[in-house]
Amino acid sequence: MKTRTEEMKMLLAGQWVLRDDTIDVFDSGNGERIATVPKATRDDMKHAIEAAQETFESLDSWPVHERISILKRVSHFMLENQEAFARTIALEGSKTINEARGEVKRAAQTIEISAEEARRIQGETINFDQNEGSENKVGYYYHFPVGVVGAITPFNDPLNLVAHKVGPAIAAGNAIVVKPASETPLSALKLAEAFTEAGLPEGMLSVVTGPGREIGDELVTHPFIKALSFTGGTEAGKKITEKTGTKHVSMELGSNSPVIVLKDADLKDAVEACVDGGFSAAGQNCIGVQRVYVEKESYPFFLDDFIEKTRELKLGEKLLEETDVGPLISEKEAERIESWIEEAVSKGAQIETGGTRTKAYIEPTILSNVPSDATIAKEEVFGPVVIVEAVEDLKEAVRKSNDVDYGLHAGIFTKDVNQAFYAVKHLNVGGVMVNDSSDYRIDAMPFGGTKDSGIGREGVKFAIDSLTEKKVVSFKLTDPFA
């Protein structure tokens, strides 16, 4: 049965609007058009930013209790409408319906945490008398909002990654303008609907739909944008940093996450974690498992079990309850991954399972004997492909783990706390998951990477810090403590 195409409006400066020019949104699983959204112009983006600045200034000092109430109402709205949100995520993106339900819960929690952290935006008193000559001074510092925040979000977590931009921005008292991925704008629009229903002041949030090449530059360069939060590809991130000037910039970029499995590890646990971490969301996950280094004594046993468990995964339609792995976001992306697999095989790699493509679907794939100069070994595959390699010991595993331009997350499986701490100290990444795969995150923890994996940290508390300024206040007392 053909899916009905919906004509969606975008939230522009507090108003839900249409445009004559539109962008089609497709179900990547079957290629059907499921919706159209307005194709915003540069003038639309400029209007959204200027309205956000005007609204921000008009609120002057926006009480924290009002921000908390709005965020709590948004979280409640999301959970009340969980199935509608989940269906939207699954239809426009790559996640199965079960994965999409999980994303809704996480996004609602992200908004809830934002409400909780809003009440904890606190400063500290400063002991000015630590400095000779300042005995008659007292003071403190406090946080105040930067103003208008710009946010650019990717397709792979179309709701929760938007929540990670909007929740902290509102909690900190900022206005925010979001440009969601053109492939998956519908979830962002549904979140905007939740904020509208919750009573967010008009103009504090705009979700502007359109191609980045036409409206992105305005968002990145407009002088009213004081902070920019970007999640996406490394090359795009580098281009953005060339244009942002002195704005606050936070970026979560690419990855090529390793997992180390030592000979003393619980292999069953390691295999299950790597299957889930490598193939959930069809591998389109920035902290998904891409490389696994196994001590040679355990390598054949790990590989056999890893292949067996991977072959049990059901590839299929996203909305079916029994589906484990859905399609890639587009057939073009699937073709790219297929070409990377073929290149690796041409250089000597072996396909242990999977490796075939049908339209936008790639079978969950395990590769061995992959040479270090293969593209798939060096770059972020962002698809359901995992490389497995035997290593002599932990030091070799750590050295190979670090031998890429990325450093987001890593995992290590071991029962030896000393080995674990060696990995924690020497892995050049933003997070080390001990006895778990790289694909572990809670929304309250600091999240980000080293090298080409990004700048700064997300995670609600840490995002709020990057979206506020610190102001120091010092009082000179004429007769202190009289």
UniProtKB/TrEMBL annotation:
<dbReference type="InterPro" id="IPR015590">
    <property type="entry name" value="Aldehyde_DH_dom"/>
</dbReference>
<dbReference type="InterPro" id="IPR016161">
    <property type="entry name" value="Ald_DH/histidinol_DH"/>
</dbReference>
<keyword id="KW-0560">Oxidoreductase</keyword>
<dbReference type="Pfam" id="PF00171">
    <property type="entry name" value="Aldedh"/>
</dbReference>
<dbReference type="InterPro" id="IPR051020">
    <property type="entry name" value="ALDH-related_metabolic_enz"/>
</dbReference>
<comment type="function">
    <text>Part of the sulfo-TAL (or sulfo-SFT) pathway, a D-sulfoquinovose degradation pathway that produces sulfolactate (SL). Catalyzes the oxidation of 3-sulfolactaldehyde (SLA) to sulfolactate (SL).</text>
</comment>
<feature type="domain" description="Aldehyde dehydrogenase">
    <location>
        <begin position="16"/>
        <end position="473"/>
    </location>
</feature>
<dbReference type="GO" id="GO:0008911">
    <property type="term" value="F:lactaldehyde dehydrogenase (NAD+) activity"/>
</dbReference>
<dbReference type="InterPro" id="IPR016163">
    <property type="entry name" value="Ald_DH_C"/>
</dbReference>
<dbReference type="InterPro" id="IPR016162">
    <property type="entry name" value="Ald_DH_N"/>
</dbReference>
<comment type="similarity">
    <text>Belongs to the aldehyde dehydrogenase family.</text>
</comment>
<protein>
    <recommendedName>
        <fullName>3-sulfolactaldehyde dehydrogenase</fullName>
        <ecNumber>1.2.1.97</ecNumber>
    </recommendedName>
</protein>
